[in-house]
Amino acid sequence: MLAFEVMRARALVAVTVLAATAAAASDCGQSAAPAPTSGCTELAPSCSAPTPSFLYDVKPLLDRSCNSTCHAPGVGPWPLGAYQDVADWASLIQLDLEACTMPPPDAGPPLTDAERQKVLDWIACGAPADPPSLQHAPAPIQAGAP
After folding, report:
1. Distance from C-alpha of 144 to C-alpha of 146, rounded to nearest angstrom
2. How far is it, in rounded angstroms, from Cα 111 to Cα 73?
3. How far is Cα 77 from Cα 75, in angstroms, rounded to an integer?
4. How far apart are the C-alpha atoms of 126 and 135, rounded to whole Å?
């Protein structure tokens, strides 16, 4: 358990440095790391059954609120479209969602508390990849899509 805590502390330091660098370089109207949003609902991430699915639960939220603006390919500091991209940044995503600093207010549709909770729960479960049977399934149909 101690090794995990040391790794987590190192990751948080690295993530903080990367977040400050990325925020300064962002093309999304952020010249510095955003301050926590007032009125941010504190959430308690937990890993309970059923584990959220990346493809069906997490990716559609990121596509709508992150990848359509700042994290579109070639636009932001890093893409969030593929599983590995998101898994690699899970610690930073967790910190930003817990503080309600991402997505920033000028970046598109905000995540609701329930949506933030779903992503945080997926991260709390270890940000698991979907089973191979789901990884090649058709993308979920978005509500209101033709």
Report:
1. 6
2. 20
3. 7
4. 17
Q: Where are the alpha helices (DSSP H) in 104-143?
A: 113-124, 132-135
**How many structural domains compose the chain?**
1
Question: Is 7 domain-assigned?
Answer: no
Residues 6+ apart with CB under 8 A from 19: 33, 92, 95, 96
Q: Which amino acid appears at position 7 of this protein?
A: M
- Does a cis peptide bond (omega within 30 degrees of 0) precede residue 103? yes
Does residue 6 lie within any of the structural domains?
no
Structure tokens at 43: 């959430």
Inter-CA distances, 69 with 8, 27, 86, 106, Å: 29, 9, 16, 10
Answer yes or no: is 115 within a domain: yes
- Report yes or no on 28 lying in a domain: no
Domain that holds residue 119: 48-130
Question: Each residue of 68-124: pLDDT tens digit?
Answer: 888 888 887 788 889 999 999 999 999 999 999 998 888 778 899 999 999 999 999
